[in-house]
Amino acid sequence: MLYIPLEGHESLWDDDYQWDPRGFWGYRHLLEHSFSRSPGFDSRITLPGSGLAVSMNVDERVDVGYPPTPYVSPLIDFFTARAATTVRTRKAELAVAFQSPDFADHVVYFGCHGEAGTKDQRAYLVLGDGEKIYSTEVMAWLSKGLSTRPVVFVGACQGGQLASMFYPAFGYHMLHRGARCLIGPQIDLPRAFAREYATGLFDAFLTPNTRLGDIVRQLAREFLDKHHNPLGLIFSLHRGIDVHLAVR
């Protein structure tokens, strides 16, 4: 979340400084963390006749954590009404899917718990079965790559640190093994906001030819302008600013 004073405005350090939303880079510009393109990179997701395939890789217990807040369940309903949706709640299911030659996901959504690595402990994810998933395991599962080049979205992590550790521990490997792009927050989010953001983002993205970069900026503006909520600014787009659904 970068901010610089607008030209002609007083110093940011003045006691009476009045911030302006246009000073946030994510409000004014299309931003992405850019990397060298993987071989065969294409910003277009051209869908087969069967349509969009989405996987929800989740821990449904997130919804009942204090205070109970519907998050995972409403998003499952949202995607099920719009796409061929697979729900995975066990480590073994994710392992089989990532290694399958028939992997079909165009969107891979993570809504689960996670813990950041410490000096004595590696970072890990946890789905509904409680089994720890380490980045080294994900690397092994993805040895042959993600053939569909999916969009990977990282949701909220109540009580954990998934947002801060997902990219270096997991997202990096997914991007280098076929993922088209990665979207996720820089900090943990309230589940209610995470639900609204994800719903808004994918509702727009499912309209063909709508670019992810445009959607991310528009949501940041909308939440700030209409609801005085700056949390839309803390989502990062790792590659994929031009990614969109294409019609054959």
Inertia-based shape: globular
Number of β-strand runs = 11
Sheet-strand content, in percent, reads 15-25%
The low-pLDDT segments are none
Helix amount: 25-40%
* CATH architecture descriptor: 3-Layer(aba) Sandwich
Whole-number mean pLDDT: 87
Radius of gyration using CA atoms only:
18 Å
What topology, given as strand order, has the largest sheet?
A: 3-2-4-8-9-10
Distance between the termini: 37 Å
SSE-based structural type: alpha/beta
Give the total of domains: 1
CATH class: Alpha Beta
Number of helices: 7
- Main sheet overview: 6 strands, mixed
Question: What is the fold named in CATH at topology level?
Answer: Rossmann fold
Series of secondary-structure elements, N-terminal to C-terminal: HEEHEHEEEEHEHEHHEE
Task: Give a structural overview.
By secondary structure, the protein is an alpha/beta fold. The protein has one domain: Rossmann fold, CATH 3.40.50. 30% of the residues lie in helices and 18% in strands. It contains seven helices and eleven strands. The strands form three sheets. A six-stranded mixed sheet has the order 3-2-4-8-9-10, with helices on both faces. It has a three-stranded antiparallel sheet with strand order 5-6-7. A two-stranded parallel sheet has the order 1-11. Helix 5 links the parallel strand 8 and strand 9. Helix 6 crosses helix 7. It is globular, with a radius of gyration of 18 Å. The chain starts with 24 loop residues before the first helix and ends with a strand. The mean pLDDT is 87.
